[in-house]
Every structure is written in structure tokens, then in C-alpha cells.
Fold this sequence. Notes:
Elements: E1 12-16, H1 21-31, H2 40-57, E2 61-63, E3 66-67, E4 70-73, E5 80-90, E6 100-109, H3 114-128, H4 130-137, H5 142-152, H6 162-165, E7 172-174, H7 179-188, E8 193-197, E9 203-208, H8 209-214, H9 237-243, H10 248-251, E10 257-260, H11 265-274, E11 279-283, E12 289-294, H12 295-303
Helix pairs in contact: 1-2
Amino acid sequence: MHLASFLSPKRIALRLAATDKRVLLEQLVASLPLPLGVAEEPLRTQILQATLAREEQASTGVGAGLAFPHARIPDLKKPLLLLATLQEPLAYGSIDEQPVRLLCLVAVPAAAPTVFLKIMAQLSRFFADEGNRQAFLECPTPEAAFQLIRDAELPIDVPILLRDIMRPPLPHVYSDMPLKDATHQMLMHHIGAVAVLDRQERIVGELNCDQLFRYGLPDFFSRLQSVSFIREFDPFEKYFEKEANCVAGDVMDPRPAILPEDGTLLEAVFALAVQKHTNLYVVDAQQRWVGIVDRIAVLDNIIHM
């Protein structure tokens, strides 16, 4: 099945004018064609309220001028889509703080939320190409815009990939960075784990709080059931003895979870839930770090959708 099967020229609105985010969402919902035989106003109200509620929790602006306002609707039989462009960019609270020009409003059956993720994935990939994005923005009619999407043959019956849910790379440290500076970076950015790179910008490890807390503890501690009988031991004494001469590479975990951007959602859940990794570092075909997937990304994109 291709994405164009959920669209038609009537489901494309070009060059809308909106003064703010709420007005824009109201316009999108009002322009969304609904199935025959349903009570139109109650359904529109339901979609608008659910869409606004989702935006209050977190913006659906995914960056690069693109947003996916969406709602899960009980008793809806199939997804409803509306693609829209704006006359002028509009502030939307997107993840990259850039205004939006392209939006896709999606209402999906409450019991089938992954359909939305597949729709979002295909459109994100399509519009990531500057030529596709500009061509769509310049389409003179909804018919021409629909033809552009149909010709692209965007399949939605494909697995969700890491590139579809990853976040931009977080701050990082270098393996030869003094440990004190590396931990300061973690504190400043309020992150419990950070990628460690070499000077060729390749990921070589991960520095996380587990390593820092365990550093200096005797190996046999990992086999104890309790340490309540040890009263005088200072768990950070050895840490502070060595910290002045340590670099991040001395303490890091040298086996970070590095996965390709075409890795699947199942691989991500396995690495996070079964292998207990904190972060998954996503790389492209040239082994360049392009994104990160953590439990919050899965919660936000999948479970909380």
C-alpha cells in the first residue's frame, strides 16, 4: 500500500494563511474531508480537541519546517490525512525552533497508532530531500501536489526504522578530555550518559553515571547482596584520588550500542529493554553519528503517540 491511497487533491490545502498555531490547527481540521455517513461536527470537534491536547503536551514540529499534528480517535475506521502548505512560515515550537511551512494533519484509529508513524516516516523521508520539498511548496494546484506524492510511490507497509524516531545527536565529549571536564558537560546538559568520540569524530565509547559511580569500587562489590554491614567505606575515595589524572577514555564503557539508521524499532527495544543500554547511537553508512534513540524517544514516538 502506498501513502497516496490515503490522499486525493481534496486532501491537500495549499498556501494557507494563519496568524497563530491554534488558528492554523482549526483551519486544518475544518479543511479535512470526513467519511460519508458520520456526524461531521462532533467528529471535527473530537479531532480538534485531541490535536490541541497533543500539542499542549509537546510540539509535533519535527524540524526542517515540517509538522505532524495528529490525533487518535476511537471508532475511526481508517486514517484521515490532510497535507498543507503555508503562505508564510509560522512559529510552531518545533524541535529545531524553526518555523513550519509544511504540515500533515493525521487522524488515526485509536487501536492502530503505528499507521501514523509509518505515514510520518515516509513523508519525513520524502520532504528531507530539498528538491521534493521545494517542488511541493511551489505546486500551483492540489492536483499537481497530489501527482507529486503519487509519483513518488511512498510505501507505508514497511517497518519503522531508527531514522524515523531518532533525535538529533546530543552534546558529546572526547576520549582525551579530562574527566572533570567531561563530567561537567554531563552536568551542564543534565544528561546521565554522553557519547565519547575520538578526534576523527567516531564514537568509541559512552561515559555514563554507572561507570562514574562504580569507578573506585572493588570488583567483589558487584557480588554482594547488601553493603549495610560496611559503615566506614568511602565509595568515592578512589575516584577522587585518580580523577585529577583521568580522561574520559579511562572510565568510559568501550562498547556503546551503535546501530545503523536503517535498524528497526524491534532492534531498538531489544537493545534498550533487554540489553539495558541507556542510549542507542545511530550512524549512517559512513559511520557518522546522525542521531540518538533512548527510552524517552520510544516513549514519545511510540507509546505516547
